[in-house]
Each structure stands twice: as C-alpha cells, then as structure tokens.
Specification:
266 residues; alpha/beta; Rossmann fold; seven-stranded mixed β-sheet; globular
Length: 266
C-alpha cells in the first residue's frame, strides 16, 4: 500500500495530541474485559488500530490482538511502544475497512471513532458480523471530545471556513456520523445493544498547548487546505486566541468520556 494519508505525517505526535491517557486506557481495558466476559483465550480485532492506544493494555496482558491500519507510520509507533512484537500481537498494514479474515475469527471486534471513515459502513458492519464468532461482541466506541477542546476547535473551523476552498471541508464530521445507524442495521441481524460509559476523566491543556497541536497539523481538518492557506489561518487563529483568552497560558479544563455501544448476537 503506497498511498499515504495524513496519519503518516502525524504518527509521532498522535498520542500526545489526543486526550486518552495510558492510565485511562488501562481502566477502559478492565471495563471491556469484564463486559465481554473475557478468558485467556479471548481474541480481539481492532480495525483502524493506529498507535495501539486502545488495545496495548490487552496486548500486555497476553490477550490475542489483531490490528489493521492504513498507516504504516502509525503501526510503527505501535511497535515502538513494545520492546519486541509479542507473539499474541498481529499488526496488518492495509485498508481497515476491509477485513481479510475467515468467518468466525474473533471473539471481540472493537472500532473507535472510525466507522465514518469507511466507504460503505453497511458493508463494513456485514464484515464485522462475518468475522465475529457466534455470541461474539462488537464494541462501537468513541472518545467524546472534551467540550473545552471542541469549542477551541470550533473557533479554528470558523476562521478556516472564511478561506476560499476551505468552507465545505471545514465542516464537522458530526453530521456524517449522525447518519450512520449501527443500531438499526444490526438489530435485524439479531443483535441486542447496551450503551455504557466506560470512563470519564478531566482533560486540561493550556491555550498555548492546544494551539501548538494545530500548528503541528495534528488533525485531519488541518490537511484539507494548501500550506499557504493553512499558515494564514494559523496566524489569524493565534491572534484570535490572544484576544479571546487574554493569555496563551490560560488552562482549559473539561471532562472527556469513553463511550461504548456493546452489540451481541442472541
């Protein structure tokens, strides 16, 4: 796979520019293991595994984990977190919307804020249904953006939308996600669902830190315009932050959530 994507460029800064921490990931892993009644033989698949933030706790505890991702650089970051790649971890460089596995391969499939990225979410869910073992679990997860960071991003989007060629691309993905009816699609296939919040935690960043994340182009919307336009937007955004917040040293704090919709065939 030769085609690159913006994740290749941000792989080295991905973890520090998001808000899921290692300690929170450990607690979420505890939650998942309990809710899926995991045994030492339970196998996990994460399409769009990235740097492994969500599943590294499972790998370290000895569970069989398979991850697939379109970004080789993200997978390399995953491997660098481990001294050696253990035998219970299988990382595949490929299109995460395609699941090149036999039927009934995994006990648990989890996706984290990625279904909106696939070309056909119905086909993707069909594939998840296919690779799950009977009575297996599909976990549709999201890290809910802390409101303070969402507001901060909103200010950036407002500025970005004023520039020619950027208005449509700067729209939030919330509208796209809203149209994906996982529940309505899986229910006729015999799945029942349960919505749970695995963990809530407080996220704090200074305005200066958040601004530095955007300057580093850590998010997809930062790559949808030319370099020239991006630098203009960043300059205007920094000036806005100084005016709006009064100081770049101001700390913005709000709560994040790790949400899980648990689906299981009955």
């Amino acid at each position: 796979m030769k085609k690159s994507n913006y994740y290749d460029y941000i792989a080295q800064i991905y973890d520090q520019t998001r808000w899921l921490t290692e300690s929170v990931a450990e607690e979420v892993a505890d939650f998942i293991l309990k809710r899926t009644c995991a045994t030492p033989e339970t196998s996990f698949l994460e399409p769009g595994v990235g740097t492994g933030l969500n599943v590294i706790p499972l790998v370290k505890r000895g569970y069989s984990v398979t991850g697939i991702d379109a970004s080789q650089e993200m997978l390399d970051q995953f491997r660098q977190k481990l001294n050696v790649t253990p035998s219970n971890l299988n990382l595949i460089h490929g299109d995460a919307s395609q699941l090149p596995f036999p039927d009934n391969s995994f006990d648990v499939v989890l996706t984290v804020h990625m279904i909106h990225t696939v070309s056909d979410w119905r086909v993707f869910l069909d594939n998840i249904d296919r690779v799950l073992k009977p009575r297996g679990f599909y976990l549709n997860c999201q890290w809910i953006t802390p409101p303070a960071r969402r507001e901060f991003e909103g200010y950036f989007r407002d500025i970005l939308s004023k520039y020619k060629g950027a208005k449509q691309e700067s729209q939030s993905i919330d509208t796209v996600i809203h149209k994906i009816d996982v529940e309505g699609y899986l229910q006729p296939k015999g799945y029942v669902s349960n919505y749970l919040v695995a963990r809530e935690w407080t996220v704090s960043n200074t305005v200066e830190e958040l601004l530095s994340f955007f300057k580093a182009r850590a998010y997809g919307l930062c790559w949808r315009v030319s370099d020239e336009i991006f630098h203009q937007v960043i300059n205007e955004f920094e000036e806005f932050c100084i005016r709006h917040y009064g100081s770049l040293k101001i700390t913005l704090s709000s709560d994040a959530k790790f949400e899980i919709w648990i689906y299981r065939a009955v």
